[in-house]
From TrEMBL:
PANTHER family: DNA-INVERTASE FROM LAMBDOID PROPHAGE (PTHR30461), RESOLVASE HOMOLOG YNEB (PTHR30461:SF26)
Species assigned in the record: Boudabousia tangfeifanii
Name of the protein described by the UniProt record: Recombinase zinc beta ribbon domain-containing protein
GO molecular function: DNA strand exchange activity
Positions of the Recombinase zinc beta ribbon domain: 70-129
Keywords: Coiled coil
Transmembrane segments: none
InterPro entries on file: SSR_resolvase, Zn_ribbon_recom_dom
Amino acid sequence: MDESLKGDALLQKTYTADFLTKTIKPNNGQIAQYYVHANHEAIIAPDVWELVQAKLAYHAKDATSYKHPFCGRVICGQCGSAYGCKVWHSGTKYQKHIWRCCAKYEKNTRCKTAHVSEEDIQGAFTQAVTSRYATTKGVQSSLDLIEKKLLAIDELKTRRQKSQVNLEQVQSRLSQLITLATHHAISAGEYDQQYYQLESERAEQEQRYQELSAEIAWAKEKIAAAKTSPTT
């Protein structure tokens, strides 16, 4: 930004290179320059001008980082330098973009890594994103499975508890029946009939209890497997 906007003036920005032809060229140190502070009334406050200059310098320094999505992000695995994009056979039908280590032609430390094509960079990026997405999706699937199995375990435990209560009730009724038979308070025929009925109920409830316990153990194994292998 021109310093004249903040009221200063830089004298002799140009010079006459040839008085005969009146050729004027930019002064890049050929003759002395003079900087005059408060030469005229400022259009922009000096502190604002300085802030804008700092912003422009910052963006100019980092401008190359925004020319290509991969610029400054592809790092050489051998020397740690960044890869830069180069154009081969520019302006011809053979034109192609390649990426190579920026230290490949350094005088003292020439990097020996080979160049890669633009397609290779894009392919590697696509593969990385796909892999990351698949991993994230796998983790979410595992979390969903864990949550589902935990809910299933809670339901199974509730059902097993009811089965245990029913089993204890049947066993209690069997004990009462045996007590009645011991005191001859029930006939042999009635005892046999009730005993076989209660014994059948007891066996059924015990089998149900064992089945529910096995289902709970299986669900716990699935949760453990999901925790150790989140991407499956």
